[in-house]
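for the recovery benchmark. tokens below, seq after
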């Protein structure tokens, strides 16, 4: 019994089956690995049936190396393991999407991702997860813990203050000031949303609905 979540299609649920990856003529399936919290793409690898089974059994990503013609567990030499949080298949069942918690850099170059990006474009999602973790596991002395102990009124007040400071920075201060104040505003808004039991996903869906 695995600890992570293996999602299945409606058809598979009706048939009482788990995931059924479709391997190609060489017995392989492409596997896209992403960070569970931020959604950032970390790497692309390939699995054969044995690698897939080992990944499912151990909750640690194992690929099939086409160059070495053997199984290799990501992190077997660096200890930067990829811990499985969920496994999904695409609509054709021929590509895996595995969301993971990485122990360290994923790329052999020491970079966070094998894909070159100037920054983690999904860090705000990761920050939301950090805020949620601080709520679930309070850390004495942390700023978020201090905020939440002061209650909703204080948190909402901080969002208002940061909003005003953002406007002032936009009208009368430098670009750096505007970036800093905007960052403070977004952070405090994340805390407010968590305090009210809301998420960025709900905000995104609402914005998407308005766009339509």
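predicted aa per position
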């Amino acid at each position: 019994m695995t600890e992570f979540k293996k999602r299945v299609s409606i058809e598979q649920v009706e048939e009482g089956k788990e995931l059924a990856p479709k391997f190609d003529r060489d017995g392989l399936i492409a596997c896209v690995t992403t960070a569970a919290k931020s959604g950032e793409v970390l790497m692309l690898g390939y699995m054969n049936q044995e690698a897939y089974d080992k990944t499912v059994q151990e909750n640690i990503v194992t690929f099939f190396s086409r160059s070495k013609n053997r199984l290799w567990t990501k992190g077997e030499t660096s200890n930067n393991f990829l811990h499985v949080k969920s496994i999904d298949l695409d609509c054709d069942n021929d590509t895996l999407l595995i969301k993971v918690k990485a122990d360290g850099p994923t790329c052999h170059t020491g970079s966070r991702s094998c894909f070159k990006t100037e920054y983690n474009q999904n860090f705000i999602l990761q920050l939301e997860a950090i805020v949620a973790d601080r709520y679930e596991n309070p850390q004495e002395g942390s700023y978020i813990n201090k905020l939440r102990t002061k209650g909703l009124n204080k948190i909402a007040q901080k969002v208002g203050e940061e909003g005003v400071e953002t406007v002032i920075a936009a009208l009368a201060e430098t670009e750096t000031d505007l970036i800093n104040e905007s960052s403070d505003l977004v952070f405090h808004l994340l805390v407010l949303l968590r305090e009210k039991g809301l998420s960025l996903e709900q905000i995104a869906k609402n914005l998407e609905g308005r766009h339509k």
